[in-house]
Fold:
Amino acid sequence: MQLIGILCSTGAAFFWAAAVIMFKKSGETFSPMALNLFKGVVTLLLLVPTLWFADVILFPVRPAQDWVLFCISGFLGITLADTFFFMALKRLGASRWAVVDCLYLPFIIFISTLFLNESIGVKGILGALLVIGAIGADACSKSSVMMSRKDFWLGLVFGVLAVILIAGSVVMVKPLLEETSVLWASFVRLLAGVAGLIVIAVIHPERRVILGALLPSSAWKIVLPASIVGNYMAMLAWLAGFKYTLVSVAAILNQLSTIFTFILAAIFLKEPVTPPRMIAIVMAVSGALLAATAV
Structure:
């Protein structure tokens, strides 16, 4: 089972990195909320027949507390966190987002310390500080100077909020995942997340534009495969990794997405590979791994 968890967590990292590149290009056409709603609906349409083929009951008899926790997890991790992620990605770019994303591991370990009785220690704190230092190093790079200070700081705030909410949303259901079908857990989280997005979209002043993303267009050539790879495949692999291995191990392997994203951004988005940015990536990954060894 440990091997399954390791393979799933590593696969999730690669799927997500590939999707980040495609989502970055899609963000030039869709707004963050429209992009989030589109990928959520696509994944939901794929998950329902997947559960049917796997003989998983969509609405089984379970304690109300289980439903509430998974729904809250979906609202925090999909409705809110993914929208903040797209807002950050649009402003920061893929490679800079990869640096901010390294906060995921320290945050998930810190939250696990609070709620799952795991211990972080001095190394965990130093690791988090190293990641923060990496963000600062990247902020001082020439490519960061070329973007507006407003975009950088807004992107950073949105990125940190996204990482905190994503980490919290999975830690809160970790105990339930050990005795729950990954497919069903993904379905309930996504159903709650999409429901939250639809409610917000309906009352949003730009609801026509947001809901219009669901209508066929040329933008689907990029956003559709991005949604399948980055939400359907990555989400299932991500949750399976947490189900079949320790939170800390899964989080470490998930952090490989930083390296994958950095490489793919340089190849496909032509984002600059500057010495300060390479130093920032090394610092961020090192800080994430240092935090992981604290567990």
User: Anything to note?
Assistant: The chain has a mean pLDDT of 84. Residues 173 and 188 are 12 Å apart (CA to CA). The two ends are 20 Å apart (CA to CA).
